[in-house]
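=== RUN LOG ===
request id: a7f3
mode: sequence -> structure
chains: 1
length: 206
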Amino acid sequence: MHFGRSHGSEGRHAACGGDLKPKSGAADVAGVDLMRLRGVQLPELRRKVAVVFQDFKVLPERTVFENISIALEVRGVSSVSIDKRVRAVIRALDLEERSYARCDELSGGEQQRVAIARSMVVNPELILADEPTGNLDSDLSHHLIDLFKQFNTYGTTIIMATHNREVLSWAPEARQVHLVRGEIQAPPPGSPGSVLDAKPIIGGRA
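=== RESULT ===
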């Protein structure tokens, strides 16, 4: 987890997704060397990485089901599989009653859950989540962290940015990186985990 002020991790998430190329050092994401990344390799990388944006980026005129299913449609997944997988994530994120509501009719918290469901439905190797609990209440936030942990057991790495200290306590096994103005700093007092500990990051491929 990245812990720090809002927007502090945007550059790092953009680099992991292939939108920014690192200027120095080494960076390997989902088996792709970002320092040697070529344009033709971007589609392959982006098939392995899903992003939960802080501003959701849902299609307002489309329904919840359509917003989630489009991530599978562009990958050529069969309609039968799409229906099964979309309904599963909708159920997991408690959106069943809103399945066929347009996204411009949803609350901010509901739109955020649609964005999270869209990232999960493709079973990516890596999920980059920018403040995914920002518009959720405490119960839904805790449930989301539990879902991320479950996805981790399937082999998905989760890199999540948050400025909510309570969220950190729900994943004490996670490696935490405390950022101040883009620089890694010592973790805040009482943090359950830190980048300095010998604890695994949430994910099996990091």
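=== NOTES ===
Residues 2-185 form a domain with the Rossmann fold fold (CATH 3.40.50.300).
Residues 11-15, 194-206 have pLDDT under 50 and may be disordered.
=== END ===
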